[in-house]
Amino acid sequence: MRATVLVRPKQGILDPQGEAVQGSLRKLGFDVSRVRVGRVLDVELAADGAEEARAQVERMCVELLANPLIESFEIQLEAE
Amino acid sequence: MRATVLVRPKQGILDPQGEAVQGSLRKLGFDVSRVRVGRVLDVELAADGAEEARAQVERMCVELLANPLIESFEIQLEAE
Questions:
Q1: ipTM of this complex
Q2: Which of B7, B11, B51, B70 is least crowded, fewest Cβ atoms below 10 Å from its Cβ?
Q3: Element (H, E) at B4
Q4: Per the CB < 8 Å rule, is B40 touching A35?
C-alpha cells in the first residue's frame, strides 16, 4: 500500500524557507503573495486494508514524520 | 489563486533523506519497504484564470522550484 503524506508548517508559524522562495520568485518577476514550503513523503507499507494503513501512517506522523507543535499533516492513501 | 506543487526525486535518483526516514521508521517497528522525501510548496499567485496560473507555476518550477535533472513536479490548482 502506498501513502502520500503532506507535512506543512502550521498557520502562524514562521516559514523562512517559504519567504526566501517567495522573494526569489518575485525577483524573477512572478506576482506571488505567499509561499509556504513543507515536505511530501511517499511511504510504501505493509498493511491489511486501508483503515489499518491510515492508522499506521498517522502513528508514523506523530512519532517521527511531523512535529505536531509546528506542523500539520495530511494523509492520502492509494491502493496498488 | 492557490497552487500546490509537489516536487519529488525522480525514479532512480538516490534519496538519502528518504533512506534515513525509512531506517528510522523500521527501528520504530513500522513495516515500510520504501520512503521517498520531496517538497510541497503552496503558492498564492495573481493570475487570470486557471490556464494562465498553471502556465505561470510551470515556469516557476522550471526556473526555480524544481531541478528538472533530478526532480519531477506535479501541479494542483485550487480556485479560492
A1: 0.93
A2: B11
A3: strand B2-9
A4: no
- For the CA atoms of A6, A28, B80, B77, the dihedral, rounded to the nearest 10 degrees, stands at -50
Beta bridge partners of A9: A71
Contacts of A33 in chain B (CB under 8 A): 44-46
Interchain pair B34, A43: CB under 8 A: yes
Tens-place pLDDT, residues B16-73: 999 999 999 999 999 999 999 999 999 999 999 999 999 999 999 999 999 999 999 9
Residue A20 has pLDDT above 60, yes or no: yes
Contact (CB<8Å) A30/B60: yes
Q: Would you list the DSSP string of B25-43?
A: HHHTT--EEEEEEEEEEEE
pTM over 0.95: no
**Hey, what's the cell of A13?**
508559524
Q: What is the CATH number of the domain that holds B13?
A: 3.30.1280.10
Query: Which of B7, B24, B31, B43 is best to mutate for the A interface (most A CBs within 10 A)?
Result: B43
